[in-house]
Amino acid sequence: MVKEYDLIVIGSGTAGSITAAKCNKSGWKVAIIDERPFGGTCALRGCDPKKVLVGITEYLDGAQRLKGSGINGDVHINWNELIQYKKGFTDDFPEIKEKGLNKQGIDTYHGHAKFIDENKLEVGKSTVKGSHILIATGASPAKLPIKGSEHFTYSDDFLEIDELPKNILFVGGGYISFEFAHIAKRAGANVQILHRGERPLEAFDKDLVEHLTDYTEKMGVHLHFETEVKEIIKKDKGYSVIGKQGKKTVEFETDMVIHGAGRTPNIDSMDLEKAGIHADKKGIVVNEFLQSTSNQNVYAAGDVAATQGKPLTPVAGMESHIVSSNLLKGNHRSMGDQVMPSSVFTLPKLASVGLSEEEASKKDINYSVNSIDTTKWFTYKRTNQSVAFAKVLIDKESDRVIGTHLLSNEADELINHFATAIQFNLSTKDLKKMLYAYPTAASDISYML
């Protein structure tokens, strides 16, 4: 028996849930399929639980920075207690999420979805048909050509381990490795990062990344750049990681090897070809309306869609809103020039929005750069932050901010003000007219312009 729906959503995270809820509210018969617990990566295995761990390490870091300035005594992280605290945010969520969907009238299916034809799916023993289908399956760790790659621990697993290993090695120099390395080091582990490129965090401002890497090494994380991992060997105790630095073979010993070398669209084994859905290495190929270019019944949103959007939860959410609007009213809405701020939740935090210096130099823009060491400013001096920098790019002709890059413990919140300025074309004169609560990090903005 084939059960028919107006809309079938594959994936229960942000990119899928918003569309499902809005179409259901408009009277459509909707189903959601997920092969993992309901809730998606961000809520269960990504940004939310990670931020819980980061939040605790912030208090530890603050206490250590201010020791002798009114705070005394030893403060340390109990890893098992921290993970149990984190589980308070994640363990009940899948059941709550699914019950909420069912209460709205949305049918839920557990299992791996495979296409049978252009609008039919097989989920376990069930067959479902959708007038429209939204693929919102997110991304998964990239497959690496490394012998012994079966010995990798993934970020999902790291967030669940009850006992922190003494020695941890991260492969890849992206935000996942850096964020988790900072957490693990502050929790007491010996940490190494191996990265095949010349510098890590390549999507962020190179000068601020250099400051962050210097700080990361000073806190005791060992960074090895231009190191390509070739093999992971399981030993009686722990692992041996074999790599190449040029022609030189290097070897590292560790108790755990964590994959932090990027993610790819989660589309394997869905039999997309049976539905005539074209995909490439970036994901489902879609038009400006997030509709498949080869199957008009199918849309894609979030990390699985081959768009210019960054792999960020707010972007996935906005794309889901766009898909629902196009489904309900016909194709009319696209992402447009959407500003996308992003942050690396190390301590200090690294944040960016708009153009980098490299990008601005390639455009026909007459711009200036305000590059400022803000370490001695009151905002950062009062909490003993040893690293705080800001870089603001301003279009000289329009007097508008075109890019901002921040490194400090307040960077993740402060970047949002600059994102607002760029999104709504505010001039620096406009920003300087704004009265911010004082003393706050935002009250420093006028001095950065």
From TrEMBL:
InterPro entries associated with the record: FAD/NAD-bd_sf, FAD/NAD-binding_dom, FAD/NAD-linked_Rdtase_dimer_sf, Pyr_nuc-diS_OxRdtase, Pyr_nucl-diS_OxRdtase_dimer
Gene3D superfamilies: 3.30.390.30, FAD/NAD(P)-binding domain (3.50.50.60)
Regions that span the bilayer: none
Keywords: FAD, Flavoprotein, Oxidoreductase
Flavoprotein among keywords: yes
A GO molecular-function annotation: oxidoreductase activity
Positions of the Pyridine nucleotide-disulphide oxidoreductase dimerisation domain: 340-444
Cofactor field: FAD
Residue span(s) of domain FAD/NAD(P)-binding: 5-317
The keyword Cell membrane is annotated on this UniProt entry: no
EC number: 1.-.-.-
Domain of life: Bacteria
A Pfam family it matches: Pyr_redox_2
Enzyme class: oxidoreductase
Family of the protein in this entry: Belongs to the class-I pyridine nucleotide-disulfide oxidoreductase family.
UniProt-recorded name of the protein: Dihydrolipoyl dehydrogenase family protein
Species, as recorded: Virgibacillus byunsanensis
Taxonomic lineage of the native organism: Bacteria, Bacillati, Bacillota, Bacilli, Bacillales
